[in-house]
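Hi R.,

Here's the chain you asked about this morning:
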Amino acid sequence: MSSSHDVASKEVLSGRVDELLRTHIHDRRSPAFEEVRELVYELEQGRNELELQNQELAKVQQRLEAYRDRYVDLYDFAPLGYVTLDEDGYVQETNLAGTKLLGADRDGLIGYPFLRYVAQEDGDAFLEHLHNCVGRRQEVVSEMTLVANDGRPIAVQLRSIPISEPEMQITWCKTAITDITERKRAEEEIRQAQQRVLELQRREKERVEAELNKARDVLVRQTRLATVGQLSVSIAHNLRNPLGGIRNAAYLLKRKIPPQDSKCHEYLSFIEEELVAANEIITACVAISQGRPLSKRQVALAPILTQARSHVAAADDIQWRYLLEPEPFIVSADADQLEQVFKQLFLNSIEGLGHSGTITVEAVHAGSYDEILVRDDGPGVRQDMRDRLFEPLATTKSRGTGLGLTLCRQIVEQHGGTIELLPDNALGAVFQIRLPSSSTA
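And here is the predicted structure, written out as tokens:
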């Protein structure tokens, strides 16, 4: 029997009772026995139906209570944290997962502002989230950081939907809280890994570009040296015979001219000096073009420096300093060719210093390399020459060939080392030579 039918039957039965009482009260007579019996029968029927309905209602109520308990269990033991917030952000309801996540009990959450669990830097974002849910009645999803009672930061996703309460004429915000700390940690690890990969790629790119630039520089230098070499061989072959003839002629003239003719002897000495200089240029060109095999051995550096110094003319006011640690300072090198390197560096320093100054040679063992510095306190090297100082034919001297430092680099690189002009020196020029250590060579 449907509830609407039951209600209708009750109303009909009640109406009949009321009508019967009114009729007999108005007529001042007692109702007939049959009428009373029929009415009593119907009342009995109604009572039986009410009892059945009460039993049915009791069963429905039991089922509803069971459903409610099941919902409470599902709500309380759900894996996600749930909170219900009013329009001001105060907690009205929460489940066990929510209390566990924040490290608080229900009494410490319900009735308190949820904002106190939001990280300070995300406070504005939470208020906007609440406004969009309650004020604009929108489903809102935001990510932010909460702070548990023990101070532990928790990265979370808040998913909120508006819930209306018609009886109270208010809208609440039902919010699911998902702990995304592990996801954020994984994202951060991925981000850092990507950064490391990008950094490795950047370094590898720089390394490759540096090697390419180095290879290009070597190729350009070798091309120039090959050009110089080809020209040098031709010049050496064609010039040495005429220069030899001039030298012999100068020698004979010197013997024929009386000693009293000092002016002629001065001119002849000048010719001989220029012949020596021309021969050195030819020798340097040939050395660059052909090179010379190394004869490396363990040698002391100090005697090499002394021998190189003996071949250069320096003013008396130029001071020499050797700072070699340890002494004797042993290097693995071809002594004759290394002497040529220091001779050229000393010549450059002397020409830069002029009549006075100090030339210092420092040497130390630096790991797998021996580092040797040749420094002076002269005017240094012009800025526009620094980048091409070791290129063939690059010179700032009116009588220079531009081959001396080129030959120096060729010899040092044959030893497996490097030579460079150190940058930005406040006073003078400093050349650094790095040779493979004598202990590892």
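One quick note: The longest strand covers residues 153-165.

Cheers,
M.
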